[in-house]
Amino acid sequence: MLGGATCKPTPTQLSGLVYIDLCDEPVWLILTNMEIDRLNMKYKLTLHSFMLAALLFGTPGIAKASESDPWTYAYIPLADSATLISDKLGDLIQTVIDKTNSRYSNSLPPEDTELEFRFFTEFRSSHIRDVAWGVFERCIGTNSCPGWPQFERIQMYPEESVYHEGNWRYIPSRFHLASIIKVCGIRMGADKITHLFDDGFHYFNAIRSKRKNYDLEDIKNLSLAFERSYMGTRLTGIFSYADVEANLAGVQFYRDFFGGPTPMIGRNANGFLTLMRSPDICDYVSDQFDERNLPNEYTYSLIKTAKARNRSLGLIKIIEQRENQSEALALKLNQQELAIQTESILARRIPMTRWQTDFPKLRLLGHATGYMTQFMFDPDFRRASIIFGFNPLKPGNLNDRKPIVMQRVGINPDAPSRLEI
Prior knowledge:
mainly alpha; 14 helices; two-stranded antiparallel sheet; two-stranded antiparallel ribbon; globular
């Protein structure tokens, strides 16, 4: 329950309710003394922004802001997790294929576009979170998900980070930091995996909408706008170009499910979905996911005072010092000393929950108000927010899906697949 709302209303509850898709089922909020269809656009936008802010900043399990510190423990070696991630991803895709095919055990599968729609609907309900941590980031960070492998990753206490030493903005200096992992030879925050798999999913499905009619350049601009918003820079003071790169890589990742010269998924002779090749995360990860290679921008305050500029310059100086310290420790520590430190750090189990109970309520109110204000007056941020807040895969939206032609297995295998994005 959420303030008189429930995730599974009956059809008779439709009058006087409004919903928003920010949990596995839609969240429904009761409106008093007015019908939704009588609201003008101004009231609708105000209402939507209020609901989004309430959900993002006031609900357990929602709106976990993750930043990463790849500098502090850069000298600690990590095993590469690419194979573990690729294998697990292949298992998840196969599970969704099986679930999608099972819908048609007693009937013929539908045409290509509807089958793709049903596949991604199942994929979303099973493996995608709208604004909370993604499945991969959570399972990598906790190393406690049933049936998942154990990942070598570095968890960091906020008090150890460059942001805490720099007395930076409240969230990155005092709350959960994304784990550091190594994937395809690249060290990165596990939040980049969320940007690739989860954020990329939402951006990809926005491109697949006829009504929105977005192209890749639109998505890049919306991703930049979202990163500069109250879901990024305005909340944390950190603009991550690496996050944007991971978002765009995620669009390509999902495009390759059914599109491109060698799609991952096609249809067999009976019309059912079949996995044609296993996913390889290294096809999408680049060195631009490492914030040491693609530096962030730091903005302590939107009001450009001398104090704010000095605070930003101070953080950059601390980051440089941490880089130098890590390089010095890599040379100074002998194998035994390094092994002891590595074992201790990799064994950490830091809870990924210091949000709802520790966050000052006055700050929460301020952030929610800022979010609502930007939602109302920044059209790019509003469009990007709607991509995450509203589900293009809900029933009734099939006709809004751009057409697709899937590749066949064993039937004219040379015929190319075609995916409109």
